[in-house]
Each structure stands twice: as structure tokens, then as C-alpha cells.
Design brief:
The protein is of the alpha+beta class and about 500 residues long. It is about 35% helix and about 30% strand.
């Protein structure tokens, strides 16, 4: 509720102890000057004071004269009320209270009318108020701009005059009455398409018509809003063509996620999942596999996330983007969803990562990445196995590097065969390392002996005494320095190597 500041100036102390009437306040001093943020009600029995009060040019001073009518006959029309001097103070207080209510109603009327007119003139769509007989009571600026008539000219006129349309007797039966009757009979807003002819040509409107009720629940008219969609009347076909020719999957949904338009690229991804009653939300929860975190952009009203989707038997990567579509009033009217195929991009990225992290000859992890993996295992328990081929240099010297490479590849295969659960790496040259967190030291010792036997048997044909030296260390989860752990395994490996005959 709007609060209006009303100050009572009881110039001649006529109200006695009746202060605080009807929400108004008494002035601290007996003044004729209205407050900056309100109005002043002057109560006086002095005709000169009354004359000064009504001469105020601000329009913010109201006057009640308590004396004979004859004293102020010439200004009676400017007074709010004239009271008899002999009436009791209680009756005068009631009159003042009623006057305050009248002032408040006058201020309310101005406020609400000004607010209404300003609001409807701010709206870019046509807006009008009609009586039940079709006479226009009020319209906004957008309405007058379209019909090329002023508000004063439109007020009190019917559809035919305003739109320069022939009347029914002249062969025209279009009166807009049918849609208004539906709104009135249902008591709800009725939405329909209406073509109208203007001086500038035909217009296509989407109209919203709602019944208006008086204080006693009786319909006295309708309010209508006309949204100009003339330039979009063929947008259905144009929108379909636009979406279909997009080089990526795209769908526009209504606000309830039902399909408005979907291109063939999007339908190809859905495959057999696409039906006339396709439920996008349910499909996204069950079929695509999340492959990244969701990113929301409040400024763009969008949500983005990467998924993997099986298309034609192949698992492909897509970035899903869902963008809210807002109307003029910032209501969500739909959603624009696109899919960006990043399958080849992800494959290329993975190939780069693999190349950076693996040994090109054996396909095992390289030294750099192996150290990174160890760094992520702080606080975990595991065995570290260090391997070094014996007499590998002689193979390179006597048989060439091609054979040497074959020996390294075969060694990597034997490592995978004997330690399938371990993380393995080629550290460089003929050095290898493994991390195993599943098996006991006894089990690994047995596996190492079997591995050594297979290495010696596999390379016996070269007659170079090729074998392998192995060092095993254990991290109980408290070792913080990775280099110390590797050094321990390395020392044990070299201790074993030095103990072998040269």
C-alpha cells in the first residue's frame, strides 16, 4: 500500500485533543507551508487565513473553513469543506478524518493512474482497455503509433473507427468480439492470432485478452495486449531451414522441453531413441556418459558438459550446450541445445599425451611419467622393482641396434606377462621399473626368478650371457622421498649385478 504524508495544521486549535486523525499527523507549528514530501490540511476559522491557504500555488494545500459561509463565499469552491462553528469538536474531528480519507483517495487515484499509464507506455507491445460494448477506454503509446491516432482521439471510439475499417453493414464482419467473448466466458486470458489492416499494411498479431472485474465481481471490460509478429509470421519455415542447415546437431525446445525444431544431425545421434514423444531429459540421464564436469554460465544462461555417446556402434565425444531462450519480460520461453563433436580432437589430444608419457619403442611409460605416477602415490603401500639387463651392450655391439631394440621390446613383453597387475616403465637404455601394490614380497620374489629364467632362455641364442639384475624395495606409506626409494631399489639391483660373474 502506498503511504501518503498528510500533515494537519490546526491553526486556531479547533480540534482539541483529536490528534493523529486517520493516519495523518499534526504539524509541530501552525503553518501554511506544505511539506516537501506530502500535503497540508489547514483547519481554520479565520477567513484571512483561509484565503491565504487557498491561494497556495503548489496544489498541496487543502483547507477546511469552520465559520459562516458568508465570510468566504467568494472562495467556497476552492475549500475542501465548510463546517458550522457551533458543531461539537468531536463532529469536526470526524469531518477532518473524512477529509483526510478523501485527500488520500485523491492522491491514490493520481498515483495509480500515473503508474498505470507510465507502465503501459513503457511496454513495447500494443495495449488497450475496452468496455463490454467495444469502446476503448485507454490505450498505450505503442497502440497510437500503429493506428496513427492520438490517445484523445482513440478514447471513446470503437474498433472500426480506430482501424479505419468498414462497419458490418458495409460488408465487414471482423470485430474482434469473438476472442473477447471467449475470455469473458472462461474468465481466463485467451491467446489467439489476429491479422489487422493498418495504414502501413497488414499486421500479424498474437493477442492476449483478459476480462476485467469491478469491485463487486462483475465484468466491465477487457484488457488486451497485441504482440507484433508480422516479421516472424513465416519464421516456422525459415527456422526449420536455418536449423537444418547448421553444420552441427541442434534442437530448439519449448519451455517444457518438448521439441520445437530438431535437425537431422541431432536425430542421427539419437538413432532409434528418437520418437515423436522424445523425452530429452530422460534420454540424457540414461544414454550419454558424462566425460567431464558441468560448467554453468549465469551471464549467458547456459550449461555446458562433455559426454560420450554411442553412435552407429562407435563411442564418440560431444560437448552439450544448453542455452535458455528468454522473451522480452525475461521469462524462459525455450531452450537451444547444440552438440559439438570433439571425437577427433580428444583422440588427437590423447595421442599427444600418450606420446609425451610413453616410450616410443616399447610402449611402456617413460621415466618422466613414471616419476609423476610415483608422486601421486604418496601415503600408499607398494613394492618398487628395478630391472637392468645384463650384457645388453654386447648384443648391440655384436648384432647391431636393430637386434638390440628387439631384445628391449621382448623384455617389455616378458615384463607384462609376468607382472600384469604392475605399473611398468622403461627408464632409459636397458633399465626398467615396476610398481606393484597387490602382491606380497614373497610372491614378487618368485615372479622375479621366473622372469629372470625367461629372459635368459629368450636371449640364449645370442650367447652373450644376457640376464637381468633385479632390486626390490618396499614403501610402507611413510616414505616421502621418491628418489630415496628408487635409490634403494637401484642399489639392491646393482648389488645383485656385481655378484654375477662377468
Amino acid at each position: 500500500m502506498i503511504q501518503h504524508k498528510i500533515i494537519i495544521s490546526d491553526i486556531n486549535s479547533l480540534l482539541g485533543q483529536a490528534g493523529g486523525l486517520s493516519g495523518a499527523a499534526f504539524a509541530d507549528t501552525k503553518t501554511l507551508t506544505p511539506p516537501d514530501d506530502g500535503v497540508l490540511l489547514v483547519v481554520t476559522n479565520d477567513h484571512e487565513t483561509a484565503r491565504k491557504a487557498v491561494s497556495d500555488e503548489t496544489g498541496k494545500v487543502y483547507t477546511i473553513f469552520v465559520e459562516a459561509y458568508a465570510d468566504v463565499k467568494d472562495i467556497a469552491g476552492k475549500l475542501l469543506d465548510i463546517r458550522h462553528p457551533d458543531e461539537p469538536a468531536e463532529l469536526l474531528a470526524i469531518s477532518v478524518s473524512n477529509a483526510v480519507g478523501k485527500i488520500r483517495s485523491e492522491l491514490d487515484l493520481w498515483f495509480y493512474r500515473h503508474t498505470l499509464e507510465t507502465t503501459i507506455d513503457t511496454v513495447p507491445d500494443m495495449l488497450w482497455y475496452k468496455r463490454l460494448d467495444g469502446i476503448h477506454m485507454m490505450v498505450n503509446d505503442a497502440f497510437t503509433n500503429i493506428v496513427h491516432k492520438s490517445k484523445e482521439d482513440v478514447a471513446g471510439k470503437d474498433h472500426f473507427y480506430i482501424w479505419d475499417a468498414p462497419r458490418p453493414t458495409e460488408g465487414n464482419e471482423f470485430t474482434c468480439a469473438e476472442s473477447e467473448e471467449i475470455a469473458i466466458s472462461t474468465g481466463q486470458t485467451y491467446i489467439c492470432d489476429e491479422p489487422v489492416k493498418t495504414r502501413d499494411g497488414m499486421m500479424q498479431l498474437v493477442t492476449y485478452k483478459t476480462p476485467l472485474y469491478d469491485k463487486f465481481g462483475t465484468v466491465f471490460g477487457t484488457v488486451g495486449v497485441g504482440h507484433d509478429v508480422t516479421n516472424f509470421s513465416r519464421m516456422g519455415i525459415e527456422l526449420s531451414i536455418l536449423i537444418e542447415n547448421m553444420p552441427f546437431p541442434m534442437t530448439i525446445f519449448y519451455s517444457d522441453w518438448k521439441i520445437l525444431r530438431m535437425n537431422s544431425l541431432f536425430r542421427e545421434i539419437l538413432g532409434d531413441d528418437y520418437t515423436d514423444d522424445f523425452d530429452y531429459k530422460s534420454w540424457k540421464l540414461t544414454k550419454p556418459i558424462p566425460a567431464g564436469t558441468q560448467h554453468a554460465d549465469p551471464k549467458k544462461h547456459s550449461v555446458t558438459r562433455e559426454y560420450r555417446v554411442e553412435v552407429g556402434g562407435e563411442l564418440r565425444s560431444y560437448i552439450f550446450t544448453e542455452l535458455e531462450i528468454h522473451d522480452f519480460f525475461d521469462n524462459i520461453t525455450g531452450y537451444l541445445c547444440t552438440m559439438q563433436d570433439v571425437t577427433y580432437q580428444r583422440a588427437y589430444e590423447n595421442s599427444i599425451i600418450k606420446a609425451a608419457n610413453t616410450d616410443i619403442l616399447t610402449g611402456m611409460y617413460n621415466r618422466r611419467y613414471f616419476y609423476q605416477l610415483l608422486g601421486t602415490r604418496r601415503g600408499l603401500r607398494y613394492h618398487l622393482i628395478y630391472l637392468d639387463l645384463d650384457h645388453f651392450k654386447q648384443i648391440n655391439d655384436n648384432y647391431g641396434h636393430t637386434v638390440g631394440d628387439e631384445v628391449l621390446v621382448k623384455t617389455a613383453e616378458l615384463i607384462h606377462e609376468h607382472f600384469p597387475d604392475a605399473i611398468s616403465a622403461r627408464l632409459g637404455g636397458d633399465e626398467f621399473a615396476l610398481v606393484d601394490d597387490l602382491h606380497s614380497a614373497d610372491y614378487l620374489t618368485v615372479q622375479c626368478e621366473r622372469f629372470r629364467d625367461d629372459v635368459e632362455n629368450s636371449f640364449a641364442e645370442y650367447d652373450q650371457g644376457t640376464s637381468v639384475s633385479i632390486g626390490i624395495s618396499y614403501n610402507d606409506g611413510t616414505t616421502k622421498n621418491i628418489d630415496e626409494l628408487i635409490h634403494e631399489s637401484d642399489e639392491r639391483m646393482y648389488t645383485q649385478k656385481r655378484s654375477k660373474p662377468k
